[in-house]
Write a structure and sequence with these properties.
By secondary structure, this protein is an alpha/beta fold. The protein has a domain of 91 residues. The chain is 60% helix and 7% strand. The strands form three sheets. A five-stranded mixed β-sheet has the order 4-7-3-8-9. It has a two-stranded antiparallel sheet with strand order 1-2. It has a two-stranded antiparallel sheet with strand order 5-6. Helix 10 packs across helix 18 and helix 20 packs across helix 23. It is globular. The chain starts with a helix and ends with a helix. The structure holds zinc ion (ZN). The site of zinc ion has 4 residues, from helix 14 and helix 15. Zinc ion binds next to helix 14 and helix 15.
Length: 614
């Protein structure tokens, strides 16, 4: 086979496996198909393709052959594509036979722990002292909103019970097996393996960034704790009281300005004014909750965007949320989904490389790189100028300044704590995955959890004890949590660049084009760091996120006032077409589409929501 034939075949073989899997993934997760066995079979076939180590030597041979041929534009494009596939298989194929043999054990560990965890029933004592069964979601809501301290205490105790349960029911064995699997592939431990694979960094490079951020936000975190003590007394820093005293929720007051039925229109118009385009993608949005539907928002692409021999092949993208439009806060959640998942969709619709390996969402696409794109857009939803221009009630009145001020007062003092709540996880996981095997005991894991919570969060025990976080349990999510913090650092680095360059973000018509060019077009053909360098001229840095954490309420309010005043003085740019065929569905029902016009879609969507939820 010539290098070109090999390349064409690789592209089509991959798509022949990825598309059926993605289609079944969507229909089974949306509850419109029961073909779970079909999905598992399709996934297994795709995974077998990805894990094939023979591809690596084949690709190296093809690349070597091609490098000796003449230097033409066709050959250099072909080289680019083959190198992309080489990177893909280097990340996904398991070269070590020992490690390949262990993958079954790792899956078994996850399912054992999952099965045992499912059988554990947690309880809290209600105000009458009766034991009530509760999910972790209910327990953490209690910590936030239950006025009775005894109820909060018993809810937190249940989280500690969960922590004790996981360390005695398989987590330790799982850690040992994961470490052995990583060592068989030449890594020091599973954390080392994960960070290298997912972020293309060593743990040392990662902790250089994290240490700096830890140092820069330490004072803000301590000030927040001190002010809690000053206001409510020492007992406010007890683990069951922390969330309760830190809360400052303006969701209810904000709700009339963010009706769910208007969220689709506000998303399309806001993205359109920023010049975000989808290059002829087809977007299907299944936003409403229903029985049998998967309980978490996500975006998947049954067809990835790419140039097939210079012909553009646009993306086909689905995304979902679990909105209940009759609930308070649903409009805010709905917008968050549209901006977040819509940000992912914009990213994956704009990858303009010559092979599908560059535009699929799994490794070598880094999680923090992908999340940077989505979180950049959802970060705008709390910007004062965005709220002023878009958050309006049914009478068309904009959200009052007073309420924006109140929401800054409620959130700014604890912004650092929120970010450090993510930061504590990688410190802890790196520590426990680096322990010598003989030190891995239930007591030691819990002792270290308290140690890192004290060190990073300044409390004797966190409101959410470390081992009650589900991400720490299964192998796919374990040792990956830092991705969210890295993404948020990149978001604030990007925001800072646009603010320096243009003075504003909301309705800035340059955003779509600049992101498409510097962040989206290359896909995973360059590193996350290189995308940041390309746009901002600076490598990865947490200093802008730290600066955001360290603002006082007065400073944040001053910035908000300035941004609102200049937003109101600007003439809004025209809404540019998104260049996307959009349909909103509810399972198999079509709610609204823009086949006729965006305006018709907004009206149909609004009417459908109002009809169903009244
Ligand atoms: Zn995301």
């Amino acid at each position: 086979m010539t290098p070109n034939e090999y390349f064409q075949k690789l592209n089509s073989d991959y798509l022949a496996l990825a598309q059926p899997f993605e289609e079944l993934f969507w229909t089974t997760f949306m509850g419109t198909s029961e073909d779970h066995d079909g999905r598992v079979a399709a996934e297994t076939a795709l995974n077998t393709f990805k894990a094939n180590p023979a591809r690596i030597s084949e690709l190296i041979a093809q690349i070597t052959q091609l490098e000796q041929e003449e230097n033409s534009p066709e050959n250099s494009a072909l080289l680019h594509g083959l190198r992309g596939w080489l990177q893909f298989f280097e990340v996904n194929a398991i070269k070590s036979a020992t490690a390949r043999d262990m993958t079954g054990q790792l899956l078994q560990d996850d399912s054992d722990l999952f099965e045992k965890r499912k059988k554990l029933v947690l309880h809290f004592a209600n105000e009458q002292g009766e034991q009530v069964e509760a999910s972790t979601l209910v327990l953490s809501t209690n910590l936030l909103s239950e006025d009775s301290e005894a109820v909060r205490k018993s809810s937190h105790d249940a989280l500690l019970e969960l922590e004790g349960f996981v360390v005695r029911n398989g987590l330790i064995e799982a850690i040992k097996h994961r470490n052995a699997y990583a060592r068989a592939q030449g890594y020091r431990n599973f954390f080392d393996y994960k960070v290298n694979k997912e972020e293309r960094m060593t743990p040392e490079q990662l902790f250089e960034i994290l240490d700096e951020f830890e140092h820069q936000t330490r004072d803000a975190q301590m000030q927040a704790t001190d002010s809690l003590i000053e206001k409510h007394g020492e007992h406010a820093t007890q683990p069951h009281n922390l969330k309760y005293y830190m809360r400052g929720d303006t969701t209810r007051e904000m709700d009339p300005y963010l009706p769910f039925s208007k969220s689709l229109q506000r998303w399309v118009e806001s993205f359109g004014r920023m010049g975000v385009q989808f290059r002829d993608a087809t977007l299907t949005l299944d936003l409403l909750d229903r029985k049998g539907k998967y309980e978490n928002g996500f975006m998947h692409a049954p067809q990835v965007a790419w140039y097939k021999n210079n012909d553009w092949s646009p993306a086909v993208i689905n995304f979902t949320s679990n909105a209940n439009p009759d609930q308070v806060g649903s409009g805010n959640d709905g917008l968050n989904t549209l901006f977040h998942e819509g940000g992912h969709a914009a990213h994956f619709s704009n990858i303009t490389q010559n092979a599908p390996c560059f535009s699929q969402e799994f490794p070598p696409t880094s999680m923090s790189y992908a999340e940077t794109q989505s979180m950049f857009f959802d970060s705008m939803l709390s910007d004062a100028d965005w709220l002023k221009l878009y958050a309006k009630n049914t009478k068309g009145e904009a959200v009052p300044d007073k309420l924006i001020h109140k929401s800054i007062e409620a959130t700014q003092p604890f912004f650092a704590n929120g970010e450090r709540g993510i930061l504590v996880v990688p410190y802890y996981e790196w520590n426990i995955y680096s322990l010598p095997e003989e030190e891995l005991s239930a007591e030691r894991l819990i002792e270290l959890a308290r140690h890192w919570e004290k060190k990073i969060l300044g409390v004797n025990c966190a409101a959410r004890p470390l081992l009650s976080i589900p991400h720490l349990l299964d192998k796919d999510a374990a040792c990956s949590y830092q991705g969210y913090l890295l993404a948020n650092m990149a978001v604030y680095q990007t925001r800072a660049w646009f603010l320096r360059e243009y003075g504003y973000l909301t309705d800035n018509p340059h955003i779509g084009n600049m992101l498409a060019q510097h962040y989206w077009a290359p896909g995973n053909s360059i590193s996350h760091n290189d995308t940041l360098l390309s746009l901002t001229g600076e490598g990865f840095t947490g200093k802008y996120l730290a600066a955001h954490c360290n603002r006082s309420v007065a400073e944040a309010w001053q910035e908000a006032q300035t941004s609102m005043a200049s937003a109101l003085a600007r003439i809004p740019p025209p809404v540019q077409p998104l260049q996307a065929a959009i349909q909103t569905v509810h399972g198999e029902e079509l709610l609204a589409s823009n086949s006729e016009s965006d305006t018709a879609m907004f009206a149909d969507f609004e009417a459908e929501i109002n009809r169903r939820y009244h």
